[in-house]
Amino acid sequence: MSKELPAPVPRLTVITLGVSDIRTSIAFYDALGFSRRLKATGEAVAFYDTGGPLLALFHWDQLAADARLPHKPRPTTFRGVTLAWNCASREEVDAVLMFALSKGAILLKSAHETDYGGYSGYFADPDGHPWEVVVAPGIEVGDDRRVHLAD
């Protein structure tokens, strides 16, 4: 009779984006103001402090190989994942979108009122990874840069 193992504590620690040109992506995320950590990795991989899970940038084909997935054909359409930059106000949403665009982001959707009482817009990074910039009811951003949800 086998003994059931205890369930591990679930956690999300790193979000890794596959990128075409790591120098361009490093420059973009540096320009957005994310704090790069563990710089000793050079251009092999870049890690950024986000106030929550780390954001990592890794060469697209190497990331695919590491996960034993084909790196081609590379999707040119929506990949089923978005990243979010939660804000404390509508003004902050507008400011973040304008800032990201000034650093080379591509506007996907202008900021607008949402059907759930929030305010959001979208930009894409140099590899087309979509970011939602949003303020939403019940979701607050604390001084610790972490998202706090209502119960």
CATH topology of the largest domain, anyone?
2,3-Dihydroxybiphenyl 1,2-Dioxygenase, domain 1
Uncertain runs: none
Distance between the termini: 41 Å
Portion of residues in beta strands equals: 25-35%
The ordered string of helix (H) and strand (E) elements is: EHEEEHEHEEEEE
InterPro entries: Glyas_Bleomycin-R_OHBP_Dase, Glyas_Fos-R_dOase_dom, VOC_core
Keywords: Lyase
GO molecular function: lyase activity
Domain VOC: 11-136
Write out key terms for the chains shown.
151 residues, alpha+beta, 2,3-Dihydroxybiphenyl 1,2-Dioxygenase, domain 1, 4-stranded mixed sheet, 3 helices, 10 strands, 21% helix
Walk me through this protein's architecture.
The protein folds into two domains: about 10-75, 2,3-Dihydroxybiphenyl 1,2-Dioxygenase, domain 1, CATH 3.10.180.10; about 80-150, Roll (2,3-Dihydroxybiphenyl 1,2-Dioxygenase, domain 1). The chain contains three helices and ten strands, in the order βαβββαβαβββββ. The model has no long low-confidence stretch (mean pLDDT about 90). The protein has helices at about 20-30, 60-65, 90-100, and strands spanning about 15-20, 35, 45-50, 55-60, 85, 105-115, 120-125, 130-135, 140, 145-150. About 20% of the residues lie in helices and about 35% in strands. It starts with 13 loop residues before the first strand and ends with a strand. A hairpin with a 4-residue loop joins strand 3 and strand 4 (about 55-60). The longest helix is centred in the middle third of the chain and has 13 residues, at about 90-100. It is α+β, with helices and mostly antiparallel strands and about 150 residues long. The chain is globular, with a radius of gyration of 17 Å. The protein has a four-stranded mixed β-sheet with strand order 1-4-3-2. A four-stranded mixed β-sheet has the order 5-8-7-6, covered by helices on one side.
